[in-house]
Amino acid sequence: MKKIFKVIGIIALAAVIGFSMTACGEDDDSGGGGGGSTTTTTDGSGTTAHVHDWGDWTTTATCTEAGVETRTCKLDATHIDTRPVAALGHDYANWTQTTAPTEFADGEETETCSRDATHTETRTIPRLPFTTVANMGTWLAAQDENTAVTAYAVKLNVSDFGGGASVSGSVGATLLDNPTKFVSIDLSGSTFTAIPDQAFNAGMFSSTACAALTEIIIPDSVISIGNLAFNGCTNLTCVTLGSGVSSIGYSAFISCFDLASITVSPANTVYKVQNNCLLYNATTVVLVPSRVEGAITIPDGVTSIEMSAFLSCTRLTGVTIPDTVTSIGAQAFSGCYRLTSIDIPANVIAIGANAFNSCTGLTSITFKGMIAETDLGSELGGRFLSPFKGDLSEKYLAGGIGTYTTTTPVPEPANTWNPVWTKN
Ligand SMILES: [Zn+2]
Ligand SMILES: [Zn+2]
Q: What is the predicted pLDDT for the residue at 333?
């Protein structure tokens, strides 16, 4: 209020004197030295008045605390202008790397506030993407060094595992000694190109398979999956293959008895899934998940059913083999004990050893064509073994095209089943 009265007084005086001026207190706010008029007059108190010539603002605010800004008139140090000011905030320079990241350890970077060098921030630079599965194993082994023997639930967030992958599960005292603790491994975004032989069986962790592993996402970068890579991962339920996989080794997913689904990136030009069959080049059935239920129709155009393709599909109740198929691999349908009948198309010229081993429900087989004796079975473990249980090979070679059935009951234990077949 005092200031307002002062201003009114000056305006009144100016009117009386007959010229105008910029009144003190209405000077510009541009800081140091603004105004500039040197016109003087007298204010209401009779002392000499002037246009303020302000100095620079100074502040009591800090990066984090609000304060006041003050400036002083150069013409009269008792003229002081103040205004409140908010906290200034930090003025950080660019991040500077202080520790370089490696594949095995995070790095660190720091930034310093230009207003106060004691204000610093550090942040983690994520570990570099693993270039090999072996390196991933080495890193995993180092994660658990301070924990008690008691298993604990943990999610190892490998956020820049080549971009967004994670490993989660209940991890015990030593990861590599407890491969069975892993329940989910998402390798998407990683950059390595091969999953080695027995990677999740013996090669990577230990001689034990990752028996608790339920899900694996194989990144687009992976080109090959080694032999027996997931052998014995008995709880593996979901497998996702990326766009790059062009080679899957033998028995890569053998003994994955819980495997319910395989998904392949639509961008993969070599593998695809059709009618629950993982197909190679659209011509070879590589694998059918063990948990598949009901009947399956193998897609037209398929020419071969690979070794162990339907191994232990214990819920498979029927399979239709297209006329394009020419070969059925060893152990192809072994353990499919709910199969009750099957037709072998005329173009089939070879059936491997034990192809229908342990198919204790299979009591009717129809041959549409003839297979040479030497191609009815194959060597397995150093011996030439029949595709069928009992005397079916002999009966078929003697009896030719037609349907063969058996009523021989399955004994205990079932592996001693030795059926006698009859041509209908
Ligand atoms: Zn002044
Ligand atoms: Zn600061």
A: 97
Instruction: Take residue 42 and report the two structure tokens written for it.
Output: 């007298």
Q: What is the torsional sign of CA 110, 115, 117, 118?
A: negative
Whether the CB-CB separation of 336 and 308 falls below 8 Å is answered with no
- The percent of residues in the chain predicted with pLDDT above 70, rounded, is 70
Nearest-ligand number for the alpha carbon of 111: 2
pLDDT single digits (tens) 194-245: 777 776 664 344 445 566 677 787 878 888 888 888 887 888 899 999 999 9
89 pLDDT higher than 80? yes
Distance CA 221, CA 198 (A): 19
Q: Give the ligand whose atoms come closest to the C-alpha of residue 87.
A: 2
Distance 82 CA to ligand 2 centre (A): 23
**Type of residue found at 87:** A
Tokens representing 253?
A: 């997913």
Measured in whole angstroms, the distance separating CA 410 from the mean position of its chain's CA atoms is 46
Centre of ligand 1 to C-alpha 50, Å, is 6
C-alpha 81 to ligand 2 mean position (Å): 26
Give me the phi and psi of 305, to 5 degrees please.
Answer: -110, 115
Q: Bridge partners of 97?
A: 109
Nearest ligand to the CA of 113 is 2
Residue range 217-229, pLDDT digits in tens: 787 888 888 888 8
Chain mean position to CA 393: 48
* 27 three-state secondary structure: coil
Q: How far is the CA of 49 from the centre of ligand 1 (A)?
A: 8
Ligand whose nearest atom lies closest to the CA of 89? 2
Distance, CA of 271 to CA of 277 (rounded, Å): 10
- Give 306 Cα–ligand 2 centroid separation in angstroms: 67
* Structural domains of the chain in order of their starting residue, each with its CATH number: 2-85 (no CATH), 96-125 (no CATH), 130-265 (3.80.10), 270-424 (3.80.10.10)
Continuous segment of H or E residues that includes residue 12 = helix 2-17
215 Cα: distance to centroid of ligand 2 (angstroms):
47
Two tokens, residue 386: 């029949």
